Amino acid sequence: MSFVDLDHTALVVERQLTKLPEAERHAHQHPFGQFVLVKNGVLHGNAIEQRWLLKPGMAVWIPPQTLHSGEAYNPVDLTVLYLDPGLCKHISPSVKLIDASPLIIALCERLAEQGTRPLCEQRRACMLQLLFEEIEERVPSNMVLPLPSDARLKRVAEQLIARPGMRKSLTEWGHEVGATERTLARLFRKDTGLRYTDWHNRLLLVEAYRGLAGEHSNETLAQHLGFASGDSFGHWFRRITGSSPGKVRSSLQVASA
């Protein structure tokens, strides 16, 4: 990729929202690509093949013409890069969620200052090229919940998303959707890249972060997510994330203040 190809067809803006506009909360698509960096607050998103959660320091790349929707349950502070379709060939053709590196954050901040601290064309193009390369090199985040395409798995996934605290085994699900445990296990790996238990844990993790951002107590989250008590939820959360629910709850509230 040559920097001379990168011009003002890339627009970077800062957005501070108490909630997302109505149009963005429903499924929609854009002719341009979007790179959304969350600086404060928690942002939720949905696409046909996956759901995701963005906490501070995370970002998502959404290619042009990708059907998606978003929701913010508390105020969010975003940096958004809008890209002309001609530039999007340099980035992943599918949605990609990442933990933003310090370099990505710094590049977004500097590019967003174009109105007050203009960059020359060559320098701006070099910064955009470096940003694209950084996005491509980042490992995808585990805060993405891939959605299955098989009709039987869709029934399982839809019920669990609606009631994440259900604790049915694959054998029980198999009786309900008309498939063997072995078939469902194979399809989960094929469709989502995850084992059933890992997929369910990822769903629980996304829901846990959403609840913590909303200041829900451990007891409330335990009931919602199917744990026996607030303590058992706390033990699970620490094992999965390495941090306590209280610390995460406090950090999310400080970030959105």
General description of the model:
The protein has 257 residues and is an alpha+beta fold. The chain folds into two domains: 3-137, Jelly Rolls (Sandwich), CATH 2.60.120; 146-256, Homeodomain-like (Arc Repressor Mutant, subunit A). The protein is built from ten helices and nine strands. A five-stranded antiparallel beta sheet has the order 1-7-2-5-8. The chain has a four-stranded antiparallel beta sheet with strand order 6-3-4-9, covered by helices on one side. Strand 3 (43-47) and strand 4 form a beta hairpin.
Sequence of strands across the biggest β-sheet: 1-7-2-5-8
Total strand count, please? 9
The CATH topology of the largest domain is: Jelly Rolls
Average of per-residue pLDDT values: 89
Largest sheet: 5 strands, antiparallel
Compute the gyration radius: what is it? Answer: 20 Å
CATH-level-4 superfamily name of the largest domain: Regulatory protein AraC
What structural category do the secondary elements indicate? Answer: alpha+beta
How many domains, as an integer? 2
Report the sheet-strand fraction: 15-25%
Q: What is the helix content?
A: 40-55%
For the termini, the CA-CA separation is: 40 Å
Give the CATH level 1 class of the largest domain.
Mainly Beta
Q: Please write the string of helix (H) and strand (E) elements.
A: EHEEEEEEEHHEHHHHHHH
Count of helices?
10
CATH architecture of the largest domain: Sandwich
Shape, principal axes of CA atoms? globular
Low-confidence stretches: 1-8
